[in-house]
């Protein structure tokens, strides 16, 4: 069973930056793909960034491409989301997710393991 713990959320001014972290439990050798999703009030959860554990291939949603960067530190079993030029529409609960296979990287259905989420508020 993979456990995911997010941190790094908070408040930022428009144009500012935040970095989210997602630490995976030690028993995560089966994980092939990790991703960040977000869900704003009244909206569906959307996949915004994903990274393949082996090789580091990345995928981004159009809404964040060029502003957000996903990266990983395999030694620490940690995935990061660097968010720059934040805008009020980025306000949401952000979730880390992990998958044992590489399917459609930004689709919620591909992921079996989820963190509890961390709130990001941009004003």
Describe the structure.
By secondary structure, this protein is an all-beta fold. Helix content is 0%, strand content 47%. It has strands spanning 4-7, 10-12, 18-24, 33-39, 46-52, 58-60, 68-73, 78-83, 92-99, 113-114, 118-122. The strands form 2 sheets. Strands 2, 4, 5, 6, 9, 10 and 11 form a 7-stranded mixed sheet that branches. Strands 1-3-8-7 form a 4-stranded antiparallel sheet, with no helix packed on it. The relative contact order is 0.32.
Order of helices and strands, N to C? EEEEEEEEEEE
Helix content: under 10%
What class would the helix/strand composition place it in?
mainly beta
Which consecutive residue ranges, at least 5 long each, have pLDDT under 50?
A: none
How large is the share of residues in beta strands? Answer: over 45%
Computed over alpha carbons, the radius of gyration is: 13 Å
* Mean pLDDT level: 94
Number-wise, the strands total: 11
Instruction: List the total number of helices.
Output: 0
Q: What is the distance, rounded to the nearest whole angstrom, between the alpha carbons of the first and last residues?
A: 37 Å
Largest sheet: 7 strands, mixed
Envelope shape: globular
